[in-house]
Amino acid sequence: MLKKDFYMTLPSYIMIIILIPVFYLFFPSTLFIYIAYFYSVIWGLAYYDQQDRVNIFLASLPVKKQQIVLARYLFSIISGAAIGIYCYGIDNIVRLFRDVDAPPLTLETLFVTFCIGVILIAFGTPFFFRFSFNAAFGAQIIAGMVLFTILTLIVRYVMLHEIYWIIDAAIFIFEHFTISIGVFALVSIIISYFLSRTLFINRDLA
Amino acid sequence: MDAIRLENVSKRFKGFAIENLNMQVPKGLITGFIGPNGSGKSTVIRMILDAIQPDQGDIRIFGKQNDDMATKQNIGFVYDSLHMYGDLTLKKLKSFFAPLYPTWDEELYQQYVEKFELPERKKLKKFSKGMKMKTSLLLALSHRPELIIMDEPTSGLDPIFRRELLEHLQELMVNENQTIFFSTHITQDLDKIADYIIYIYKGKLQFQKTMDDIQSNFYLLKGAPDQLDNDLRNLLIGYKESPQGFTGLINGNWTLFAGLEHEFVLEPASLEDIMYFMTRKGIGA
Questions:
Q1: d(CA A16, CA A39)
Q2: Residue B97 and residue A61: Cβ atoms within 8 Å?
Q3: A162 touches chain B (CB under 8 A)
Q4: Using CB atoms, which residue from B67, B83, B87 is nearest to A57?
Q5: Pairwise CB contact (< 8 Å): A61 & B72
Q6: Which residues of chain B have a CB within 8 Å of the CB of A64?
Q7: What is the 3-state secondary structure (H, E, C) of B43-70?
Q8: Mutate to test the interface with B, among A50, A53, A57, A64 (most CBs of B within 10 A)
C-alpha cells in the first residue's frame, strides 16, 4: 500500500528535490514550501483516488480497510519527514556557500514545522476518507472557517472574562511550545486516524 | 458448499433498494448474473467484494465472511473498469499487487502478459478499454484463485476479444476447475458458456436455476391475436401483442399446449427472451 502511494507521488518528489535548492535563489526560507508540500501530498493522492476510483479496487484486495487508511497516514508522515530532512540538509549546504537572510533551519524549527504539517494532515485526511474530492475540498474550507471562528470566540471570551487558569495554561504551552506542539500533533494524528478508519470502513465505494 | 451465499441481504439507496436477497453461487460452475441495467448487479457484486457494506444480511464466500483475508486471497476480481491509477504501469501495479497473494504465479503472469500482448512499461491511462480488461483479467488469474468474480467483463469490448474472453473462461473451467461468477446484460455471452443463472430485477431475485432447468422450463408461446384470452394472459409470465399475433413467455407448464401444435407455436426461450418478458410481467402491449 505504501508502495503505490510512493509511485504516485514520485514525480512530485523529483520536482520538490529540484525546486528546494532553486528556491534559495529567490526566497530566504523554504519552510513554507515544506508545509505546502505536506498538505499537497494528501490532496494529490486523494485526487488520484477519486479520478480513477481506486478505492473500489483496493477494498477488494486481501488487505483490511484499516490498513489502507494506515498506509495513507504512514506514507504522508514518512514522506513529510524525508522532505524535512532534505530541506535541513539543503539549508546547511546553501549556508556553506552564500549568506542567507533568514535564520538557519535548526532541528527544532524543522520539528515544529513537521508537527504543523502533521496537524494539517490530521485535519484534512478524514474529509477525503468520507467525501468525494470536491466535497472534501468544500467541507475542509467550511470546517476550517468554523474552527477558526470558534477559536477566536473562545479567546475573546477568555480575555473578556479574564479566566486566568486558561490564560496560565496558554502561557505554559507557549513557554514549552516545541513539546506542546509535538504532543498536540501526536494526539491529533491518532484521533484523525481512528476517525478516518471508522469513516472509510463504513463508506460505500461505488 | 456454495462458493458464494447471500442471506437476507438488504441495501437501500435513494430511489433504489435491494431487499432481503437470498442467492447461492454453486461451486465449480460458471454462473451468470443477469438483469437489465440498474437492476442491482453491480451493487451485489460490490457487496460480495467488500466495497459496499450491506445494511443487513450475511455474505459468505466458501463458508467464511467476505472480508476474511484468506478468503479474499482466493478471489480474482474483474470490475467493469480497471479502477487503478492511470499513471502506473503494469509493472508497477504488479509490484504492489503480487505480494498480497501467496499463490501468485509469476510464470503464469508472464504467460498471460505474452498471450494478451500487454506492454508492461506503458502507463495504464494509455491502455484501450480491451487492454484494461485484459489487465484486470491478468491480475485476477495470475494468483490461481478458486473463485473469479467479474462485473460486466464483456461490456464495451469488441466482438473478437469478447469471444476470446468467453473461450478463455471456458478453458479455465475445464483445466483449473475454478468457480466463475459474472454479471452481464449481454445474455448471448451466457447462452454459450453458463451452467447456472441468477436473475435479479429491481433489486429482487427473480430466479436462480441451472441452464438445463431454464432450457427445459421456459418457452415462448406464439399465436394469433384472437387466441390471447384472459385465461391465457394469466398463464403467461409476460407477453407482447401485435396485429399479427402475440408472443408470450411460459414457465414450466408447456405441457398444457401439447397436442395444440397446429394452433400455437412453442419454442425454447433464450435468456434474452426470458429477461425481456419477465421485465414486462403482466404488462402486455
A1: 13
A2: yes
A3: no
A4: B83
A5: yes
A6: 67, 69
A7: HHHHHHCCCCCCCEEEEEECCEECCCHH
A8: A57
What is the value of ipTM here, to two decimals?
A: 0.83
Total domains, chain B: 2
Residue whose C-alpha is closest to residue A74's, from A190, A164, A199 = A190
B189 shares its domain with B105: yes
pLDDT at B175: 65
Asked if A4 and B88 come within 8 Å (Cβ–Cβ), the reply is yes
Helix (H) or strand (E) holding A106: none
pLDDT tens profile B2-52? 999 999 999 998 889 998 999 999 998 899 999 888 889 999 999 999 999
Amino acid making up residue A119: I
- Asked whether residue B229 falls in the same domain as residue B144, the answer is no
Between chains, do A60 and B100 touch, taking CB under 8 Å as contact?
no
Residues of A in contact with B69 (CB under 8 A): 62-64
Domain range for B266 is 216-278
Q: Which residues of B touch A10 (CB under 8 A)?
A: none
3-state SS, one letter per residue, for B241-252? EECCEEEEEEEC
**Residue B207 counted as domain residue:** no
Is the CB of residue B151 less than 8 Å from the CB of residue B136?
Answer: no
d(CA B178, CA B137): 14
Give pLDDT tens digits for A160-203: 888 888 888 888 888 899 999 999 999 999 999 999 999 999 88
Q: What is the CA radius of gyration of chain B?
A: 21
Instruction: Encode pLDDT of B253-276 as tens digits.
Output: 767 777 776 778 888 888 889 988
Answer with the one of B159, B176, B202 that is the final residue of a domain.
B202
* pTM to 2 decimal places: 0.84
CA distance B30 to chain A (A): 21
CB atoms B81 and A61 under 8 Å: no
Identify which of B70, B75, B100 has the shortest CB distance to residue A63: B100
Which grid coordinates belong to B4?
458464494
Cβ separation B53–A202 shorter than 8 A = yes
Q: Which residue has the higher pLDDT, B124 or A12?
A: B124
Task: Examine the domain organization and report whether B133 and B252 are in the same domain.
Answer: no
Q: Which of B196, B201, B129 is nearest to B165 (CA)?
A: B129
Q: What is the DSSP letter of B285?
A: -
**CB nearest B84 (choices: A52, A63, A201):** A52
Q: Is residue B209 part of a domain?
A: no
Cβ within 8 Å, pair B46-A206: yes
Task: Tell me which residue has cell 495554561.
Answer: A169
